[in-house]
């Protein structure tokens, strides 16, 4: 089985590629991996994903102590109420500090299960089995866990690294086209910020990717996970380098906030944000003029939007960017592009260029 290690000293862990783990192949590799998941486990999933993949997982886990919590599907359930419910079930079923939580689902299930694991009896092990493209290349790796507060997304959380992440790329075959594309936005982001070769590989393989060719998906997810793993290993708690992963996100969060959560998927907002970040980088003279068009071509091939929704207002947009939680107290920090494959975090903002970018995108919407 292929695997990558996230190097974090005594908290290092593997990202294992195991096609068929929860999509029905009862092979020896799958059984071996399942045997390493712990003697006592507690699975968290949601109504949608459980219907598809819970039974194969339970079959693999065999007759060890295993309990299941199934939450409703949706970002609006990423709340402390769900944490309270999960902890209630863990206690009622007598789970000790030796128990391992298993997250089976997308980023919502992953974030909630990770946070429950971080706080249950001051911390128990968690295994991530991400089933969306976004969660396979982004949220399952890196140890950020959180739930939402009515006043802000991801405002209650902790860093808690998993003990293992297992990717079954076959789960992506049941994902909706829109959710699949949303995950591709984070992948374009990875390539744009870290690796020109990867960007070119994505360009060359865009048709097979859209056709969800298994081998192609494996290569792509592994490539993205390596990029994320290296960045996380260099800056676990986001005091420096890890902020590079926010490329396109300061613009993207403003779009998400102002268009009302739920209208635009996070990945779609990231795609728009990537275009805005590239445009800003050109206007502030760090990026060559031809780069945004290359980015737009790739995003379009991945069925992602490159223009912002109609009706956003300039003044509120700039304000929404400033209120982004990733902006520092001194002022705004932006991730800019120096080239395709090379990004940098800066707090030296070219105000004119920023206003031009915002005006250009909002006026042409
Ligand atoms: N912790 C982090 O570092 C981090 C990073 C990025 C995003 N996030 C969080 O991740 C969440 C978004 O994650 P997401 O995009 O995976 O959304 P999601 O978890 O809501 O999943 C999207 C939809 O796909 C369904 N689904 C999941 N797997 C499926 C499958 N294999 N087949 C069919 N349907 C499936 C889900 O039930 C849901 O309806 C947000 O809450 C965000 O804050 C966290
Ligand atoms: Zn993101």
Topology (SSEs and partners):
Elements: E1 2-6, E2 13-17, H1 28-35, E3 40-46, H2 47-61, E4 65-71, H3 80-92, E5 100-105, H4 107-119, E6 125-130, H5 133-139, E7 144-149, E8 152-159, E9 164-167, H6 177-194, H7 196-204, H8 206-210, H9 214-234, H10 249-258, H11 266-283, H12 291-301, H13 314-322, E10 334-339, E11 342-346, H14 351-363
Helix pairs in contact: 3-4, 5-6, 5-9, 6-7, 6-9, 6-11, 10-11, 10-13, 11-12, 11-14
Structure description:
With 365 residues, the chain is an alpha/beta fold. The chain folds into two domains: 2-174, 3-Layer(aba) Sandwich (Rossmann fold); 177-363, Up-down Bundle (Dehydroquinate synthase-like, alpha domain). It has 14 helices and eleven strands. The strands form three sheets. The chain has a seven-stranded mixed β-sheet, sandwiched between helices. A two-stranded antiparallel sheet has the order 7-8. Strands 10-11 form a two-stranded antiparallel ribbon. Strand 7 and strand 8 (152-159) form a beta hairpin. Helix 10 packs across helix 11. Bound molecules: nicotinamide-adenine-dinucleotide and zinc ion.
